Amino acid sequence: MQLGSRIRARRRQLGLTLKTVSETSGLSVPYLSQIERHQANPTVTSLASIARALGVNLTFFVPEEQHETVVTRHDAGTFLHLQELPYRVSSLAGRGTDLQLEPLLIHIQPHFESQPNSHLGEEFLHVLQGHLTLTVGSERFELGPGDSAHHPSTTPHAWANPGEIQTLLLWVGTPRLF
């Protein structure tokens, strides 16, 4: 797929208009349109601005021919724990340089409730243990072990663990967080 087509596909995947990407990237709507229609070639600086606006790395638009395989062992100890958040995050993917997905194992403490937030990308989550209340936009879903959800991250969303035990989630999203 050509560069302009990849940019258009990513923008549409996120549900963004050219105007929104223009405002975020600092590039004009006509210039972005020309790039998407293969009538202009962006400079590296312009492409970096577009990539930031679309929540991806430069390699998303110019993929390398070589793909690396990253194996993360269960005892790797790649945990992130922030004192202000009552959950623990384990990275499952390691530090691959050409990877777009971010798979995480998330441990959510009982009675935790997040504030709604939104960002570029998309999210998939699968409940392994416990229960999760997922709010996406105006919809509310009660999920238990074995249940999954997939949604665009651009829609405001929030999590809550209403139970008395820890909830364990497999979360996969874009763009990468770590």
TrEMBL record:
Cited SUPFAM superfamilies: lambda repressor-like DNA-binding domains (SSF47413), RmlC-like cupins (SSF51182)
CDD domains, alphabetized: cupin_XRE_C, HTH_XRE
Tagged with keyword Hydrolase: no
UniProt keywords, alphabetically: DNA-binding
Pfam families recorded: Cupin_2, HTH_3
HTH cro/C1-type domain: residues covered: 7-61
Database matches in PANTHER family: HTH-TYPE TRANSCRIPTIONAL REGULATOR, METHYLPHOSPHONATE SYNTHASE
Protein's name in the database: Helix-turn-helix domain-containing protein
Organism: Deinococcus oregonensis
